[in-house]
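Regression test case RT-17, inverse folding.

Input:
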């Protein structure tokens, strides 16, 4: 088993391409298969009233200025696309609206992502499924009925998908992980199930792999004390590297379900069975 590991940059780049490239560097060096971003058409996702409300940030004093400050445009995503190719790492993004999903099409990405917040956005779900790319579907704050409705769309369009168990609190307490849901989702939908985590350490994500998670997604940051709502629920690059190492160790330790006497056991068997 080779767990697909996604390092979510999200909005932790703080609108800075230099920070973004450092995060991509860290994810690639750690051995992740992909980095992930978030794409929004600000005026479509948020109401005027919400955008105009006061909010202090490095970009100004309104929520609009903060949201715009965190949003990359075509020039910046083109640079991200080229940089990821140079680093030999995939990238993908969760679109929060149809215009953003259409924007992402021009990069011919190999993967799509449905954010937990968008799982009930039926028109967006249909647009994503219509591309028939392997799609990671996060299931945070969703009922089984809502998950079933989304899965039905992907099944009807023959779009390959993978559910991701998720708890949408930032940061998540370990006792709220409820990892047994991985088995529940796998049994209910007969599909691969990964884990998208918002905890601060490594143990829950490693346990998810031991329980059969086929993918792991974690928010990453250069420094958890940096500005941003997602920084506290992220892991720094050093911790990311240790997480990847832990996951690969677990994969080796899991082995296969066949019970057999290993070659390494034979000398011990011959010696001890004589007793």
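Golden output:
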């Amino acid at each position: 088993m080779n767990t697909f590991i996604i390092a979510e940059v999200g909005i932790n780049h703080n609108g800075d391409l230099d920070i973004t490239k450092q995060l991509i560097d860290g994810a690639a060096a750690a051995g992740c298969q992909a980095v992930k971003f978030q794409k929004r058409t600000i005026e479509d996702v948020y109401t005027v009233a919400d955008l105009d409300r006061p909010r202090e940030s490095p970009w100004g004093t309104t929520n609009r200025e903060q949201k715009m400050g965190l949003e990359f445009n075509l020039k910046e995503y083109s640079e991200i696309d080229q940089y990821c190719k140079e680093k030999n790492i995939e990238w993908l993004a969760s679109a929060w609206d149809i215009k953003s999903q259409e924007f992402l099409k021009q990069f011919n990405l190999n993967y799509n992502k449905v954010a937990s917040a968008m799982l009930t956005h039926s028109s967006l779900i249909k647009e994503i499924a219509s591309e028939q790319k392997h799609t990671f579907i996060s299931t945070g704050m969703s009922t089984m009925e809502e998950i079933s409705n989304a899965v039905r769309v992907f099944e009807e369009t023959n779009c390959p998908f993978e559910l991701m168990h998720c708890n949408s609190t930032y940061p998540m307490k370990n006792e709220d992980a409820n990892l047994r849901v991985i088995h529940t989702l796998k049994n209910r939908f007969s599909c691969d199930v990964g884990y998208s985590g918002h905890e601060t350490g490594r143990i829950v994500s490693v346990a998810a792999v031991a329980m059969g998670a086929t993918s792991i997604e974690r928010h990453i940051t250069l420094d958890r004390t940096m500005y941003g709502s997602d920084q506290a629920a992220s892991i720094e690059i050093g911790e990311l590297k240790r997480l990847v190492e832990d996951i690969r160790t677990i994969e080796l330790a899991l082995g296969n379900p066949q019970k057999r006497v290993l070659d390494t056991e034979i000398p011990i068997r011959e010696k001890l069975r004589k007793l």
